[in-house]
Amino acid sequence: MKTLKSVFICILIISVYACSKEDDNSQQQEGSELIDNFLDADIINALNTLGFNFRTGSETPNIAGDFKFDPLLLISNTTNITYENEVNYINGSIYKISNLNAENRKFNFQITDLVGNPSFTLTSDTFYYGEGNSFCAFVKLLPYEQSEEPYLLLAISGVVSEDGIINAEQAYVNLTDREEFGFESLRGQGQLARDDDNLAERQ
Q1: pTM summary value
Q2: What's the domain range around 2?
Q3: Measured between alpha carbons, how far is residue 79 from residues 34, 165, 177 in Å?
């Protein structure tokens, strides 16, 4: 009787452990598939080509705040825009993230210049995920109010803290072919920049 009881307990423990492993695998799979539901494969490949840091996880960290991305050092560039100097800095911005919706992984987003003047760029859709304080956030931008098709993707990666976003980086990737400022911009082309002091400070 004791032997049967021991066997039953062993089977029960193994079953519980197996279910736990399945749940863990499900969570990992969810984390890897999250971005696939928001971005097309060629845009994900474009971000990888730039060297964008796709962080892991399937949680919804608290990324709300106003963050100053400046100075921004250009790390990689696949656009037709060329620079004369070997070390290149690009214009900084303040990113305002608010009204997080953890259930839908959405948030409100606004861009201003460094003195607080709002940008005319409009948001089409947003998405974020992460683990702990590490996160990635993505914003699809519209060229003007009446437009229905987003033309540009902003991707942000870092570790959120009380002081700001540590190891902050941003990437812009074209979602459409267009001509801008005399340059031809093709879908998938973009730029990756990192905050040169490794912290996008809270404002």
Answers
A1: 0.81
A2: 1-33
A3: 27, 26, 12
